[in-house]
Design brief:
This protein is an alpha/beta fold. It has seven helices and eleven strands. The protein has a single domain, classed as DHBP synthase (Alpha-Beta Complex).
Amino acid sequence: MEILEIAREGNEGLATIKAAGVLRSGGVILYPTDTLYGLGADAFSDGAVDRVYEIKGRDAAKAMHAVFANMQMVEEYAEVNDLARKLAEKFLPGALTLVLKKKSGVEGGIARGMKTIGVRIPDNSFCIEVARTLGKPFTATSANIAGLSTRLKVDEILVQLDSNAHKIDLVVDSGELPLRSPSTVVDVSAGVLNILRVGAIPRAELEHAIS
């Protein structure tokens, strides 16, 4: 496991290149987002996504979302309807996860056995640059053991993951993150607003944005 501290000036570019390389080779990264630390892997690789499920001890039947660089990348994998566009224009990049119908032919990884995929475009330059450099999405799931709270410091996360921590190939350490709410998750795959989890963006703001 390699640890890179991006709080140091000039380190983010190196971390971006290394993270994209690890993801491209099927590895797993621990990385900061605009909400929490996450575990990243090639979002449409069965083997890579399975490693993330294993590290978290998460039920493989539960959906996992992914980081995209922009809406153009989203459109390569998902059907973006008018409601999704309206919410994206208002809240993305930001702490909103859009659940969209996957495009025909999109299979494997987070799309395996699913009709929809979860889309994140975080308000975080590192995440955006990694997705852009990689040229494809990578998983966006909190870096914690399933059922336990997510810690805000890398060393505490690694302690919680215990023996599973060694399965992470690269740690990108941005220092202690501020306490923030997780992303708000909305399913708009059917063209209507279905709020699955209220997080950083309140229900009232979502409803106002589409009224």
